[in-house]
Amino acid sequence: MYRRAVVVGALAAATAGCTDRIRDVAASTPRDLDVRSRYVDGNPLVEGQSIRALPAELHVHAASYQSGASALGALRSDAAETRSFVDATEFVDDGGESILVVAQRLTAPEVELRLGAISRIGDGALRVALDQPGPDVDVEKLDDPVVKTLLLRLTDRQGTPERVIVSVDRERAGVTI
Fold first, then answer.
1. DSSP assignment, residue 86?
2. Residues 6+ apart with CB under 8 A from 175
3. 153 forms bridges with which residues in the sheet?
4. What is the C-alpha to C-alpha distance for residues 137 and 32, in angstroms, rounded to an integer?
5. Per-residue pLDDT of the chain (177 residues; tens, 9 = 90+)
6. Which of 35, 37, 39, 45 is nearest to 98 (CA)?
7. pTM to 2 decimal places
8. Nearest to 120 by CA among 87, 96, 88, 156
9. Hey, where are the domains in the chain?
């Protein structure tokens, strides 16, 4: 409890006034789960791995990676920011304790993705709720929706999750680990 308060306090000082958001995410994350996230404006995944490979009526996508080689193999060569995040991940299959979940959403250019909350929804399953600050957009009415991506590094002290459900607004995508 004390350590979490110190972390929240340090982050609050570093973010100068954005403390409500940090406290909300910290409070909504199970204590035995460490999460790091990074928003990417665009599509860092190669053609066959991204949301663009799905049917047009699907607007949310999730993919998971347990090894550095598989994660790097799924990334476009020009995705430097994403590659940096992947390089800093100690993957389960590589002797570490983390997995990478890539959550994608088709939406308007002015919308962003950010981590809203994480909860356990049964043995070995997590629900990751994403917020999308920006205007309320009906994706079906957009001429050319863009891809927004949130990278999630998950380290679960209860063991590698078996399934992760990503939800944005009223849409969901699940991935089996």
1. H
2. 62, 63, 64, 101, 163, 164, 166
3. 36, 100
4. 35
5. 555 555 555 544 444 434 334 444 554 688 899 999 999 999 999 999 999 999 989 999 999 999 999 999 999 999 999 999 999 999 999 999 999 999 999 999 999 999 999 999 988 899 999 998 888 888 888 888 999 999 999 999 999 999 999 999 889 999 998
6. 35
7. 0.83
8. 156
9. 1-31, 32-176
Report the C-alpha gap between 75 and 65 in whole angstroms: 11
The phi and psi torsions of 68 (rounded to 5 degrees) equal -65, -40
What strands, in cross-sheet order, belong to the sheet with 98-107?
33-40, 146-156, 98-107, 60-65
- Spatial CB neighbours of 119, under 8 Å, sequence gap ≥ 6: 28, 30, 126, 127, 129
The token pair at 48 is: 């066959």
